Amino acid sequence: MTTGAYRVARAAGFLKAAFTVAVGMNLAEALWDPSGLAWTAARLTAAAVFTVALVAYVALHLLRWRRTRSGRP
Q1: I need a surface site. Which of 23, 37, 59, 60 has the fewest CB within 10 A?
Q2: Over the stretch 5-28, which tens digit does the pLDDT of each residue have?
C-alpha cells in the first residue's frame, strides 16, 4: 500500500469511527431524551469531528485520484 493509499485508508477509519459515534448518539437521543450542557457539548463535538473526518477523507481521496490520474506516484 502506498503512502497516499495508507493516508486515505486511515482517514476512512477515522470517518467510520466518527460515523459510528454519531449514529450511536442519534440512537441514544431517539430512545432517551438526554439534555443539558454536557449532551449539547458532546453533540457539537461529535458533529465537528465527523465534519473534519469527512472533509479529510474526501480531500485525501481526491488528491490521490488526481496524482494517479496525472501519472505521479
Answers
A1: 37
A2: 888 889 899 999 999 999 999 999
DSSP secondary structure string for all residues of 5-73: HHHHHHHHHHHHHHHHHHHHHHHHHHHS---SHHHHHHHHHHHHHHHHHHHHHHHHHHHHHHHHHHT--
Rg (CA), the chain: 16
Cβ-contact 57, 12 below 8 angstroms: yes
CB neighbours of residue 32 within 10 Å: 7
pLDDT of residue 67: 67
